[in-house]
Amino acid sequence: MATVLYLGPSGTFTEVAARAAFPERHHRFVALASVPDVLEAAEAGGDVYGVVPVENSIEGSVTLTLDWLIHHVHVPIVAEWVLPVRQHLLAAERTARLGLGAVEAVLSHPHAIAQCRAYLRQHLPGACIRHTSSTAEAARLVAEHPDRPWAAIGPRLAAERYGLAVLAGPIQDSAHNATRFFVVGQLPYPRQSERAKTTLLITLPHDYPGALYQVLAAFAWRKLNLTRIESRPTGKGLGSYHFMIDVERPLGDVLVPGAIAEIQALGCAVRVLGSYPCFASGDEAERTAGL
Amino acid sequence: MATVLYLGPSGTFTEVAARAAFPERHHRFVALASVPDVLEAAEAGGDVYGVVPVENSIEGSVTLTLDWLIHHVHVPIVAEWVLPVRQHLLAAERTARLGLGAVEAVLSHPHAIAQCRAYLRQHLPGACIRHTSSTAEAARLVAEHPDRPWAAIGPRLAAERYGLAVLAGPIQDSAHNATRFFVVGQLPYPRQSERAKTTLLITLPHDYPGALYQVLAAFAWRKLNLTRIESRPTGKGLGSYHFMIDVERPLGDVLVPGAIAEIQALGCAVRVLGSYPCFASGDEAERTAGL
């Protein structure tokens, strides 16, 4: 039995991802208050995994997750899980019986509200919008005030967790909305996949214009596909960046260590943040053309 | 007389940047509530400029600014201004007379608090921390309650704006903390600089692994220095990105249009977000080694 820590509160998409990644019922699931809390607890070791969001197809990177993996913890990424974001309109039984027309206020995280803008304009043009700190917090507030004409936007799981009815859904405007999660831990992830990635943190040498091009050359001539390149500040001033690069091969692949050695020979610092199997729920098989 | 719109409230680092970029006293300075408000008003044209933060050396990109420039407005970047972030501890006269030992609560934006963590631990280990929506909001709250033993963390300008005394400063932990601002507008920026950049938005073709490497090659063989490369989601699913690339040359340089034409011939979409002079206040001459 493993302990699976995830970014809480309970009933968010991160819990959906945690339960998809660890479908066996006997695991212990614990919601923690912040991304640093999850990463630090997973770093401490034992039969403990952490699940945190890393990237959304609309909002982009979760920089807090990247920066903690870069600067504050040393815990390997052991799996990737991609989840479609499917927002639903959730309400207490009384409001649900009255129907959509009865909803006077819609509560959710600003990102979730933004993701359902077209739906809200069409179906609830007069509703007042209230922002909350998470989709689960919105569901909790709606459940706590069952007599108010309120609805929350959130995952179907939040309806289960807080005893709400699903009024409508999925209601997000884009079918392409997906979030990528990392599973981190000191023990290997218990399942295999045909797809694997290696995430490298590469820091270019000072005073070497063109170094990034040379780094990409080391991958390109080996036909190693990159699925993502993300720059994050080193903290040493504007213009100084770490590059987080996802290679679409496991570290055990014969070509990857050669590319790393070549990049190090250029004077770059290279840290392997993880080499891990990749999974997706539902229809979210990731694009694999690469950069 | 130009109208200079900046991300408010009054007394933040963005106002400091706006006044540095337009030092003539006769301009009209107006604080707006959000980055989209500033960009949309500047897009409308006339003798109007907008000033918004785009990147901090510790926090990274201001993704709201990038995403609005990419997806929602068409207004050119006409200047870059880099400003050192110098945090100060600000208090009402009464608290200032009693000295540091009297401060029981410190108010500021979470980023400003984080930037002064070492100072607070050493000098105010017992003070309670309260987060506010901006450094200026913290200064306003402190000024409104002059009898409370409170201090705000913010720029020196906030002391002027809200009638506070400077108890200590600069107090931020890192000397490398700087923020980069864009000036946008439909008219050219009125001053020249020896340094210039061109910011390009490049979208790679589908199903062409290695395209990013080819894009960088077009710059590398011309020895066109890149100072930044940032990926932002296109909104079409995970793995699909725009790349915002800063080239350290003006668009009028003989080599830049050739590079753009070559990149377009690869099947990439290229949009010029601006070609602009670069300025820095104080000691923040930017690193120029390039990527």
Automatic annotation (TrEMBL), chains A, B:
Record-listed E.C. numbers: 4.2.1.51
Record-level Gene Ontology MF annotations: prephenate dehydratase activity
GO biological process terms, semicolon-separated: L-phenylalanine biosynthetic process
UniProt keyword terms in alphabetical order: Amino-acid biosynthesis, Aromatic amino acid biosynthesis, Lyase, Phenylalanine biosynthesis
Reaction(s) the record says it catalyses: prephenate + H(+) = 3-phenylpyruvate + CO2 + H2O
Domain ACT, chain residue ranges per copy: 200-277
Residues annotated as domain Prephenate dehydratase: 3-186
Classification via InterPro entries: ACT-like_dom_sf, ACT_dom, Chor_mutase/pphenate_deHydtase, Preph_deHydtase, Preph_deHydtase_CS
Positions bearing the site annotation: Essential for prephenate dehydratase activity: 179
Protein's name according to its UniProt entry: Prephenate dehydratase
Organism: Calditerricola satsumensis
Name of the encoding gene: pheA
